[in-house]
Please model this.
Amino acid sequence: MLNLPSGTSLKKIIPKKMIYTKFQLKQAERDEFDEVIRQISVIHELSPKTVNIPSGKKVAGIFVLQAQLKDKNCKDKLLIHLSKLIDRNMVLLLIHGDDGQLALLHNDSFLRGTWQNLANMQLNITGLDLDTVWENFVRQIGEILVEEGNTLDEQLVENEEQEQFMKEISALEKKMKGAKQPREKLELRQKLNKLKKKLK
Model:
């Protein structure tokens, strides 16, 4: 699965109780967790010992955590808890039936890939150190094209800003349709045009 080297394989089941205790989840949050997540286990460890790639300045190791889901519509908030479970960089493999989705938390950005058949899923290890391997995972999972002159983090911020502009544009267009006064429509049109100029 994921086409990772066999030397990285682990099979360590993580009890849900460990998550409840670590994050001091209230009963309602525990129930929500139980409704969506069936089982959690660590299935791969990428470290200098297992992949013969040196640690980076920021990344000492990467774990792949598998979460068997009861429902594909799992909230990001629950998955972010899973990402913070171990003090290492973590790639999540979400499984529902025969489908899988990769996700990860990079800085403050939670990125999810697209759902696809498990048989077709791959996670490509490329890089001279684990910092670079991690950045390539972020690009791969988030389907991020880093524009020339940008770092990965700058590109993520830029993408989030563009996404926010799109939401604002959509909300303004909706308001314009409901506006009855010509003056109000004009003001909304001007705001809309300003936002559209900020979009790339």
User: Anything to note?
Assistant: The chain has two domains: 6-142, 152-198. DSSP finds seven helices and seven strands in the chain.
